[in-house]
What does this fold into?
Amino acid sequence: MNRNINLNVMDEMYYSDLWIKLCKRSKDIILTKDEIEKYNAEGIKKGYIYDIFNEPNEVAKEYVVTMINCVSKIPEGDRYKNGSKVNKEYYDKLIDNMNLKEVKDKISIEYGLVVKRGSIRTFPTSDRVFKGEKEYDLDRFMESAIYAAEPCIIYAFSKDGKWCFCKTYNYSGWIKKENIALGSKKEIEEYCKCKDFIVVTGKKINLVYNPFIEALRNLDIDMGVKLPIETNLSKEELIYDMYSEGNYVVKYPLRESNGELKFTNILIPYNEDVHRGYLKCSRNNILKQIFKFQGERYGWGGEFNGRDCSSLIIDTFRTFGIQFPRNSGDQLKKSVGKTLLVHKEMPYHERMKILDSLKPGTLIFLNGHVAMFIGNYKNSYYIIHDVIGVFVNKKDYEEKNKGQKEQVNKEKIYLGIKGVTVSELKEIYTSSGKPYIEEIIGIKDIFN
It folds into this structure.
């Protein structure tokens, strides 16, 4: 029985089990460890992602200023803060806080390690700024999220001393200084390139209460975070007054009062949703991982401690050690793998033929949006994606959901999903009034 507003989607379709069952040879390894390393190396070579540890120790002012200006652009359209339109004076203050006049001709770069999840911002400010007066969930100054234990390069500091401009393996922007601990390149590189580690495979894990270190209390650690295992301890040694038996002892970064990096040991239970080493890259595991986000609220750029459409893909792939560009457009055109660009003129039957050939884990792109193909069920094509909303046919919706009231747009009804969901490609429409299947602009298969 379909009780869902999402047309043609049954309750059992919100679980990975069905799609794994439908997937042939789902447990086969589709990328080996060596192949993943080669995949990441090729992405770095082509400039799709960065190996920050290969950055020159000293860079020119022009390089840094150009990089900052590429991110910190004043929007062309109107923006609103607390319901009021922001003016030139507001932007002038933001630009002044960027402190570009004080950037030296030669900059010795610094390395940092993230100690807690933070935001990568367009400007050095926490102000939430929107396109409309009444908007509240698409902060246009939000660029991305940065997770615990992630390394970054620091190029510049804001005038108020609260922000630093950083580059990670797939993005650049302004990050709060309090989220980053400064350390030597050598110690951070050794930490990040350790061979024995756990990777978080749950949507999040929680460190619960620590009576000694406030920074570790109830700390959430996101999917894909990699933490080195400390192997030089005996099982009898206490970790913050707890026995370590039955737990992984892992090294976690902390920020000292002077901003410098230090490491501490924390306990992660064996039966927590983590894995020693990266997961084996099979379609079975890909489906299991991405479905762990099902129902999570949409978070533009990672707001609300969530994800948007492209970071849903990134975080799923990170559990296999696969590094991927940040934005959906780059994921299609600037990532390694088999890419098929779909032209607007492509006939409907040819689009159907392409979909018939897809395997679970293949990425499907629309303009500004990415979804993962999960399977074909009774001649219908299904995706999982993190989406703000979709349109459906008014007639079909009313037949299946009598009495429901939703926003009507002529012959279409808007469903404000605002989260990770399963959809059937022929049943949902974009704001242009065309079905998703006709708006597909590209297909990416990173496993071929």
